[in-house]
C-alpha cells in the first residue's frame, strides 16, 4: 500500500517540466502588455534619442569636414601667399642687385668723368704755369741778355723795341739750335 499510495501521489503531483496553463496564459498576457508599453512609449523615445544622436554625430562630422575643408583652403591660400611672397622677395632682391649695379656703374662713370676733369684741369693749370714760367724766363733771359749784350757791345740797349727784338731773335736762335741738337741725337 505504501507503494501504491506513493505511485498515486506521484501521479497526482504536477510534473515540474510541464508548465501550468494559467501561468503560461498569465505570462503571455504580461509579455504582450510589456511589449505594447515598450512599443508605444519606450521605443519611440529610444528612436528619437537615437535619431537626435545620429543627427548630432552627422552634424559634427559635417562641421568637422567643413572645418577641415576650410583649414585646407586656408593652408592652400597661405602656401600660395607664401610662394607669392618668396617670388616677390626674389624679384625685389634681383631689382636691388640691378639697381646696385646701375648705381655702381653711374658712380664709376661719374668718378671717371671727375678724374678726367681733374686731369684736364691739372693739364690746363700746367700749361698756364708753363706759359707763365716761359714768359718769366724770357723776360729774365731778355734782361740778362740785354745787360750782357750791353756790356759786350758797349752801347746801351735800353730801348724797349730794340731790346725786345734782340731778345726774341736770341730766343728763336736758341730754340732752333735746341731743336737741331735734339734731332741730331
From TrEMBL:
**Superkingdom, according to UniProt?**
Bacteria
Give one Pfam family.
ATP-synt_B
Where are the coiled-coil regions? 61-117
Where does this polypeptide localize?
Cell membrane
Instruction: Give the function comment from the record.
Output: Component of the F(0) channel, it forms part of the peripheral stalk, linking F(1) to F(0).
How it assembles, according to the record, is: F-type ATPases have 2 components, F(1) - the catalytic core - and F(0) - the membrane proton channel. F(1) has five subunits: alpha(3), beta(3), gamma(1), delta(1), epsilon(1). F(0) has three main subunits: a(1), b(2) and c(10-14). The alpha and beta chains form an alternating ring which encloses part of the gamma chain. F(1) is attached to F(0) by a central stalk formed by the gamma and epsilon chains, while a peripheral stalk is formed by the delta and b chains.
Q: What is this protein called?
A: ATP synthase subunit b
Origin organism is: Amycolatopsis vancoresmycina DSM 44592
Amino acid at each position: 500500500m505504501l507503494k501504491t499510495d506513493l505511485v498515486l501521489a506521484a501521479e497526482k503531483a504536477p510534473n515540474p517540466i510541464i508548465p501550468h496553463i494559467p501561468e503560461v496564459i498569465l505570462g503571455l498576457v504580461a509579455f504582450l502588455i510589456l511589449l505594447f508599453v515598450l512599443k508605444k512609449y519606450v521605443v519611440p523615445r529610444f528612436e528619437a534619442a537615437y535619431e537626435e544622436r545620429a543627427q548630432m554625430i552627422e552634424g559634427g562630422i559635417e562641421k568637422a569636414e567643413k572645418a577641415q575643408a576650410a583649414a585646407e583652403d586656408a593652408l592652400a591660400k597661405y602656401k600660395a601667399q607664401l610662394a607669392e611672397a618668396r617670388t616677390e622677395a626674389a624679384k625685389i632682391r634681383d631689382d636691388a642687385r640691378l639697381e646696385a649695379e646701375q648705381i655702381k656703374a653711374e658712380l664709376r662713370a661719374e668718378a671717371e668723368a671727375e678724374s678726367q676733369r681733374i686731369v684736364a684741369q691739372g693739364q690746363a693749370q700746367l700749361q698756364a704755369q708753363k706759359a707763365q714760367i716761359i714768359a718769366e724766363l724770357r723776360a729774365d733771359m731778355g734782361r740778362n741778355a740785354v745787360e750782357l749784350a750791353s756790356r759786350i757791345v758797349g752801347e746801351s740797349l735800353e730801348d724797349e723795341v730794340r731790346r725786345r727784338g734782340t731778345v726774341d731773335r736770341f730766343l728763336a736762335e736758341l730754340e732752333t739750335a735746341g731743336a737741331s741738337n735734339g734731332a741730331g741725337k
